[in-house]
Fold this protein.
Amino acid sequence: MTPDPPWREYRKARLPRGWAYPLGRDRIEKALRRAGAVIDSLSLGPPDLPPRPGVSAVFDVLWLGDARAGYSTGRVSPAAAGLLMRWTAIPAEQCTSIAQQLAEGVLDQACRWAADAPTMGNAWTSTEHRFLVSHRDGLLHVSRA
């Protein structure tokens, strides 16, 4: 692997006991590289507390849109144009199941989506879009907006 990661910025939250991420930074990096994706920011964030019954977020990839004003959000790298990947910590006991489902193709889909985002054309890239992976009743669900 090349020494530079496929992101400009990286953040990882300190987690409370009993919370974890289904995948680590290395596995996420490998998936991004396989897809040829470059993102502006990778964030491994804290859990949504208090826990809510029902659907919980696992991660999302967010295209902020390249037509936004730079004065409020700051400048982002031109290669990534505001492409963010944000992970939410989940209960540690769910990590194995979710990691297995992510390895069955969901993570690769998200990374391909991230790689394709900058090439989608002016109308698409000018607005915000999201690839969201959530967890409900033991299964991962993908939604794109």
